[in-house]
Amino acid sequence: MADHLPNSRARDWTVKTFSKRALLRASAAPAILSASLIASAAFAQDAPQGADAADSDTIVVTGSRIATPVIDAPNPIQVVTDQVIRSTGAINLQETLLRNPAFGTPAISRNNSNFSTSSAGVATVDLRNLGSDRTLVLVNGRRFVAGVPGTSTVDLNSIPTQFIDRVDVLTGGSSAVYGSDAVAGVVNITLKKDYQGIEASARTGISEHGDDSQREFNLMLGGNFDDNKGNVLVYAGYTKQGAVFSRGRSRSAIDQISCVYVNCDVDQIFEPYAPYYSSFAPQGRFFVGPQATQTTQAQQFTYDKNNNLIQGFSTNGNATRAADGFNRSAYRTIAIPTERYLLALNAHYEISDSVNVFLEGNYASTKVRTELEPFPMDSAGPNGIFPATGGRFNIEGLSINPATGASVLTRNPLVPLAIYNAATDTTGDGLRDIGFTKRLSEFGNRGSSVDRDTFRIVAGVNGALSDRWNYEAYYNYGQTRESQQNQGQVNVLNFANALNAVQDVYDLNGNGSTTDAICADAQARAQGCAPANIFGYNALSPEAINYIIAPSSVTSLTTQSVAGASIVGSLPGLSAGDIGIAIGAEYRKEQSEQVFDALTNAGLNGGNKLANTYGQFHVWEGYGEIRLPILADTPFFHRLELSAAGRVSKYSTVGTVYSYNLSALWAPVQDIRFRGTYSQSTRAPNVSELYGGSGQDYPSDLSDPCDGITATSTGTLATQCLANVGVRANIAANGSFVVNQADIQGISGFNNTNPNLNEEQSKSWTVGVAINPRSVDALRNLTLTVDYFNIKIKDAITQLPRSFILSQCYNAGNDDYCSFITRRQAVAGANSAGSLEFIDTTLFNSGGLRTSGLDVTLGYSQNVAGGQANFNVSYTHVFKGYVIPLPGAGRDNFAGESGASKDRATGALGWINKDFGVTFTGTYIGKAYLDDQFIIGSRGDTDIHSSNYRIKSKFYLDGQIKFTPGDNFEFFFGANNLLNTSPPPIITGLPFNTTGAETDASTYDPIGRRYYTGVRVKF
User: Fold this and answer.
1) In this structure, are residues 384 and 375 in contact, taking their beta carbons and an 8 Å threshold?
2) Are the C-beta atoms of 414 and 531 separated by less than 8 Å?
3) What is the model's pTM?
4) Which helix (H) or strand (E) holds 602?
5) How does 696-712 read in b/e, with b if 16+ C-beta sit within 10 Å?
6) Using the 8-state DSSP alphabet, how is residue 427 labeled?
7) Cα–Cα distance measured from residue 696 to residue 276, given in angstroms and rounded to the nearest whole number
8) Which of 278, 372, 444, 566 is most buried as measured by Cβ atoms within 10 A of its Cβ?
9) 3-class secondary-structure state, position 728
10) Is the distance from CB of 31 to CB of 912 less than 8 angstroms?
11) Nearest-CA neighbor of 25 among 186, 140, 217?
12) Host H or E run for residue 69
């Protein structure tokens, strides 16, 4: 099975990246997940249950810069408190937020980034499956530096969970209030402040398989000073999460491929085709003879387990002998080990009634280690050693007598005689040649060591200008620096020199036997070249390894500078209340660079060819907001309020853009509140989209539309296929166009960026109702919210899907798209003539992106048996979700596919008193389907919702018990995935497969049941 190192998910800007991942979440209150996750701003826990508006605290609610009673917010906001975070037992915030059905599949997590070329182990979130770059993450209402180079995507690993007071989740466009990137919504993380005392905690955990070990230590100290004018709160923490290997789970311990690629019945598409090992084996696979038929068994050689040379090669075994291939799954990783050191600071000092200075600081050092199977070397292939000769290298050469200048033809003495005798001259230079594939097990496993440091500091001043007006000014600087060292790769140029070996007939080394092999090139010998023996297990010498091996590297630096000032206050209004006003201005500068080593830039280390990224932009912005109470405490108008916000932004890249929103809140009685918001939001292209270097990718879910075409086939598809000389050669040799396993896995292509991109513009609206029947005693603790959302993004920045390119070229006959496609004109190594070699794509402003759905939350609490019982549920149903790849093109639906199920829900049931608490949290992921484009393209089936392609629904149950034996101590015990729910089998070759996990590890739990316990101590 041919295999390559796929490009980073962070650099895969296809449409599935953000929808299909081929596109492009009072101390006496129970610590219950949904209790806060579903609490809308209309009845959030900041306000006591059953309290009137007049009794509610006036705070700055996410979605507005105007201080207002939380129950009067017109936007549906879900609140995650620090108690909720603790009740989940999560080490980082991503794990908690992903339980919320409003969040889609994350682009990057420790479960899906083992194969990333950069940004491995980053923790991101993605509201509404619209992409991480369309979800704005704030800390205390201000921007946080990105953790992924060239993007706006924040790494939640950089923010300590123990330092979080609450998280507000606002879905829907909010660019008018917060600026670019708030297209899908906002995640606003509010940190603790004004804390006094000491809190220490420790936690440990492990899966029932004995892996995924977890350790966490936290210390927080805070106190007032100078007669309570100031407060300083500091935090230090350490977390370590261990690895989970593919070999540790039965479903992923054996290399396998989907039946879709080996002519199984259609209803077996989710079933693995027994062991189906990689054709890149440590002992090597060697091709001899004419190129047109070199893949026949008679023209292949390999070695058996006893290192004896044999003829033929099999990846899945047969009746006469076992498989010769290599089990990659024995080396792969499901969850990568992650280690974090965290420091945080929150301080303020009141100089006078009108001047208060504040300081926020954050530092995170994250260390990540990825590990995967040894390098698969191909003499051909896009980044092979000999692409110019179709992967062939000479096994004969000329040795020159240094005294006379005479030459003699010799063979490479490292080549076994049987291979030499079977070989012929296939390149026309008069010398015998062969091709090969080989797993470089002598080099050890591939992998990377990543050091990522994030630093952020905010300094500012705020205070009162009068009894009605307040001001704030601040400066925010952040940077993320990443250094990644990769091992197990090769220098392709040196490998070519080492393979070009001849017999040392004239003892050119000056000593030793004249039967020795030496590198033919004198300059290479002077540089330390040692002949490469690739024939058999562990054949490469230490000298050859030292000459060939080439560790690679990538470094990146992302910086963000933000300066802002605002004035917030009120004007006397009518009897309904004062008019709230906020105005402000901001300046922001984003810079990013990502630099790969020279071999990676040139594609000369056998892996992805990746270009560097350098870029920056800045923006000046001004904004204003108004809240206008219209009526209050009148019949049918307990409260009627309108609000509006607007922002103008001048970018150095796309020029001037505008955003605005309009909101309304109507409460006919105090128990019922209707609300609605209409927004126009913008997102300017980021550095990677504008200035990112071209990146090579190896898409894994494509099929060749020409498969099965014959010389007599008719129609548009046949005409387009037969126009290619390589396809015709393949048909001539096989009777019809045939692709092999290496062809399926060997498709490459380049993801290109675009400096001429325009901004995205979205129009979104939400309308809903929040019900809290406080006038009925038995129901005063019941809350129900129902909100409809509709988000439509015009000119969405996407990458043209490769499946769309293939369809347009071959099915629609559009030659403009055929220019993106390169086929092999002749046999190249293990790849067939006419097989797909490159499918390039580029970023552009697409025809659009849209999603709509319904959010429903229900919560109820009641005193029971000396404690408080709570029940809460949050449910999201998606009506539509699709992308339009080009203006005027048809819809490519993502709603209902894996990672974007149309139905998701989270519910919690708990009981607590002063000494004891128990919580159970359930998460439901509805049925889903494979990618519709894949079904149509690979199966030729338009029944995309057939049960043959259905991924069954899954339910996960978590639980936690805590004991509080005294005021200063708390012990807790918990388990995640209590029912040990197994993930659906989405195996190699199917879309949404996460390499190594054999499932969609971005959506489903790939680890299984795991336990944790810990203690908290307060003084």
Assistant:
1) no
2) yes
3) 0.89
4) helix 598-602
5) bbbbbbbbbbbbebeee
6) S
7) 26
8) 278
9) helix
10) yes
11) 186
12) strand 67-69
Task: Give the span between the Cα atoms of 104 and 128, in whole angstroms.
Answer: 5
CA distance 122 to 99: 18
What amino acid is encoded at 1013 in this protein? T
Q: Are 413 and 515 in contact (CB under 8 A)?
A: yes
Please tell me the distance from the alpha carbon of residue 754 to that of residue 13, in angstroms, as a whole number. Answer: 12
- Alpha-carbon distances, residue 412 vs 372, 439, 480, 498, 533 (angstroms): 33, 21, 51, 11, 10
In the beta sheet, which residues pair with residue 1014?
203, 972
Q: What is the pLDDT of residue 208?
A: 96
Question: Helices (H) and strands (E) in the chain — how many of each?
Answer: 16, 50
Nearest one of 457, 470, 341 to 58, comparing CA atoms: 470
Three-state SS letters, 609-629: CECCEEEEEEEEEEEEEEEEE
Can you give the three-state secondary structure of 628-691, one letter per residue? EEEEEEECCEEEEEEEEEEEEEEECCCEEEEEEEEEEEEEEECCEEEEEEEEEEEECCCHHHHH
What separation in angstroms does the CA of 398 have from each of 223, 394, 525?
Answer: 82, 11, 15
- The overall longest dimension of the chain from CA atoms, in Å, is 113
Q: What is residue 41's DSSP assignment?
A: G
To the nearest 10°, report the CA torsion of 601, 606, 608, 609: 30
Q: Is 1003 left (phi over 0), alpha (psi -120 to 50) or beta?
A: alpha
**Which single residue is written with the structure tokens 């990677």?**
688
Amino acid at 58: T
In the chain, pLDDT over 90 holds for what percent of residues?
67
Q: What is the pLDDT of residue 292?
A: 58
In angstroms, the CA 514 to CA 502 distance is 10
Rounded distance, CA 153 to CA 172, Å? Answer: 17
| β 782-794/848-864 pair status | antiparallel
Question: Residue 279: which region, alpha, beta or left (left: phi > 0; alpha: psi -120 to 50)?
Answer: alpha
Give the type of residue at 264: C
From 288-292, 309-313, 783-787, the region with the lowest mean pLDDT: 288-292
Structure confidence at residue 54 (pLDDT): 37
| Residues constituting the chain | 1019
| Burial grade of 50 (CB within 10 A; 0-12, 13-18, 19 or more) | middle
CA 166 to chain centre: 25
Nearest of 212, 214, 220 to residue 239 by alpha carbon? 214
Question: Which of 838, 824, 837 is CA-nearest to residue 291?
Answer: 824
Contact criterion met (CB below 8 Å) for 409 and 384:
no
Report the alpha-carbon distance of residue 884 to residue 843 in Å, rounded. Answer: 14
Extract the tokens encoding 380.
Answer: 């051909």
Dihedral angle sign, alpha carbons of residues 79, 181, 886, 790: positive
Question: Which of 4-8, 33-37, 142-146 shows the highest mean pLDDT?
Answer: 142-146
Q: How far apart are CA 994 and CA 992, in angstroms?
A: 6
Alpha-carbon distance values, 895 to 899, 914, 926 (Å):
9, 44, 11
CA 989, 993, 995, 999 torsion-angle sign: negative
Q: Which of 146, 159, 43, 156 is nearest to 98 (CA)?
A: 156
Environment class of 345 (CB within 10 Å of its CB; exposed 0-12, middle 13-18, buried 19+): middle
Q: In whole angstroms, what is the distance from residue 552 CA to residue 483 CA?
A: 11
Tokens of 544: 């050859």
Q: What is the pLDDT of residues 896-921, one digit of tens each?
A: 999 999 999 999 999 999 999 999 99
Q: Which pairs with CB-CB distance under 8 Å and at least 24 residues apart come from 411-417?
A: 411/503, 412/501, 412/502, 412/503, 412/517, 412/531, 413/501, 413/503, 413/515, 413/516, 413/517, 414/501, 414/517, 414/531, 414/532, 414/533, 414/534, 414/535, 415/535, 416/301, 416/309, 416/535
